[in-house]
Amino acid sequence: MTKIIGLTGGIGSGKTTIANHLKSLGIPVYNSDEQAKKILYLPETIKSLKSVFGNGIFSNNLLDKEKLSKLVFNYPIQLKLLNQIIHPAVKVDFDKWLFANKNAKLVIKEAAILFESGSYKDCDAIISISAPQELRIQRVINRDLATYEEVMSKINNQWTDDMRNKKSDYVIDNQDIEVACAQTQKIITILLNY
């Protein structure tokens, strides 16, 4: 049976970098955040978004992600409503992907909000990527050309590293990518040999 390994960490922690390293090792990786972005534009999702949030998050009848982002990251109740639309659809998508990868000994489910969404419950083990907050902030500012305030708004809507680390089976310190990749390979070797 395929083992599902959760890969999580706060914004700017380096999840994608570690996920890409795992892919290079031949391990199938499901990127929940990327899939959620695709699901956001499906007709059934658009219909639900209009029903819940109204037309204010649309420009010229197209979803305006910037308006949606400002709405949900400034109002936790709105974020919860969005998650109630997106998370079930991501779960269905993941289950299809998992079936397509059923011959793999283990797969990685990458998700920034693995714990917050409850999807950690489906994982056999969880790896958390951790990095100092100031480093994470700088990474996101550089990557997304975001403001400090925008990054902090997202950080404040996620669990802290301490919260994630306490519930994880393995923690990778991602201040130095070579060290983090070496830690990742050790953990994968352990998981493959269980």
Strand order of the largest sheet: 2-5-1-6-7
Residue-averaged pLDDT, rounded?
93
Q: Which blocks of ≥5 consecutive residues have pLDDT under 50?
A: none
Oligomer: single chain
3D structure, described in words:
The structure is a single chain. The protein is an alpha/beta fold. It contains ten helices and seven strands. The chain has helices spanning 15-24, 32-39, 43-53, 65-74, 76-100, 114-117, 133-144, 148-155, 161-167, 177-192; strands at 3-9, 29-31, 58-59, 62-63, 106-110, 125-130, 170-173. The strands form two sheets. It has a five-stranded parallel sheet with strand order 2-5-1-6-7, with helices on both faces. Helix 1 (15-24) crosses helix 10, helix 2 packs across helix 5 and helix 3 packs antiparallel against helix 5. It is globular and about 50 Å long.
List strands and helices in order, with pairings.
Elements: E1 3-9, H1 15-24, E2 29-31, H2 32-39, H3 43-53, E3 58-59, E4 62-63, H4 65-74, H5 76-100, E5 106-110, H6 114-117, E6 125-130, H7 133-144, H8 148-155, H9 161-167, E7 170-173, H10 177-192
Parallel strand pairs: 1-5, 1-6, 2-5, 6-7
Antiparallel strand pairs: 3-4
Structure keywords:
57% helix, 5-stranded parallel sheet, 194 residues, alpha/beta, globular, two-stranded antiparallel ribbon
Q: In summary, what is this structure?
A:
With 194 residues, this protein is α/β, with parallel strands linked by helices.
